[in-house]
Amino acid sequence: PPPFLLRLPLLSALCAPTCALVDRHEWKKLILVQHWPETVCEEVQKDCRDPPNYWTIHGLWPDSSENCNGSWKFNLKEIQDLLPEMKEYWPDLIHLFPNRSSFWNHEWRKHGTCAAQVDALNSQRKYFGRTLELYRELDLNRWVRPSFPWLHFPVADFKDALARVYRVIPKIHCLPPSQDEEVQTIGQIELCLTKQDQKLRNCTEPGQEPPHKKEVWLAGGGTESRGLRVCEDGPVFYPPPKKAKH
Q: Where is the signal peptide, in residue numbers (predicted)?
């Protein structure tokens, strides 16, 4: 057989946890996902307690790959120095997990093990640390502020404002209106990044619209959960927080 076929078992045996399964888990861009606690808690009121009044991290996700290495277990000790920031800016808003670190365990195993294809993200310390760095650098809370309780505005204006700030096309997710509501509600913002150096890039190209599909961020919220979707054209509401300013 060709020599390269003989080398494959050896490569597999030597492969460290950072090795990528390129054929099954290749991806092209990263997505920094941030959600608005007031909207999250509006959907899961019984499970959401004392939500922060600022945008928080949902995760840093490769765009087309999940659960790349089930044997690479989450280890809280590797991010001990990050815990103060993690608790503040990356909380488990809807309390689906038995303890705070279980949410981070979920994000690592589902998304972090795939992001580890990149040298800058190829350990738990690097993955969580780099995500916090990007959160601080992009500083969504500086640019995006809630509207008055009675004010609705076109979602296109919201998207255009973000595009002017970041000079890329973001993706915005909304909570669809319930039977008692008239408009959709801003819930989540995705800012997309290049794979190797984590620089901002378009989430969609000009003229390309993302599919209006239901997202899974409220998984476990019950069969009646509306879930977040890519915002429809039309008016949108950005609810102010109920607690004092952070």
A: 1-20
